Amino acid sequence: MTQLLLGITIAVFLVEWLLGGSTATAVLYMLGAKNDQAIIAGQWWRFITPIFLHMGLTHIALNGVVIYFMGMQIEALFGHWRLLAIYLLGGISGNIMSFGLSPDQSVGASTAIFALFGAFLMVGESFWENPMIRRLTGQFLMFTVLNLVFDLFSAGIDIWGHIGGLIGGFLLGYIVGVPRMGKIPTIKRILAGITLIIAWFAMIKLGFTNFQ
């Protein structure tokens, strides 16, 4: 599944290039960049299409490497279909938070990548007694924090999309569960699902409110 997602991402990047270039704002908009006014006009697919769009070769190269290595680890832990759910719904979560809190047009798989980070942190919280998981979680937590700090001091990065993806992935980890590791308490899964739905509605409502 990781290889499939990466393959689709690369294929979409080639389409961008053929249509006029991956840095052309008009091309990115046409292919489904997150754009608040377009979403408000009814183009709801823009919550998911930005996950597969990238601006420039460096952007897709960096994200592609992380998709592969992080995706393979999450897929090994959660399984194929759970990875897909975390990646897509986590990416959507990031774009929904961006819609609520950032007026800028944005693209990139970073929302979904941060969802993978969030899912791994959920594994760390749930299976902290496992020494290997505890050690890896500490490393991923440090890496995630450093990335968010870097976002704060970098222009053109949608930090709200990253935070939304991280939170979404963390909650989705509970919702889909990790059968290969152990059982997640039902109450945690229910609370995570309720929290995610409420957060989605709140951010969407805020996005529409900001436009008025």
What does this structure look like?
It contains 9 helices and no strands. α4 (57-78) runs parallel beside α6 and α5 (80-101) packs across α6 (110-126). It has 212 residues and is mainly α. The protein is globular. The chain is 74% helix and 0% strand.
Features:
212 residues; mainly alpha; 9 helices; globular
Count every helix, treating DSSP H or I runs of 4 or more residues as helices.
9
What letter string, H or E per element, gives the SSE order?
A: HHHHHHHHH
Find the structural class using helix and strand composition.
mainly alpha
Main sheet properties = none
> Beta-sheet strand percentage?
under 5%
Radius of gyration: 17 Å
Helix % is: over 70%
User: How many DSSP-defined strands?
Assistant: 0
The N- and C-terminal alpha carbons lie at a distance of: 41 Å
Shape: globular
Contiguous uncertain segments of 5+ residues: none
Mean pLDDT: 91
Topology of this protein?
Layout: H1 2-19, H2 25-31, H3 36-40, H4 57-78, H5 80-101, H6 110-126, H7 131-152, H8 159-176, H9 186-211
Helix pairs in contact: 1-4, 4-5, 4-6, 5-6, 5-8, 5-9, 6-7, 6-8, 8-9
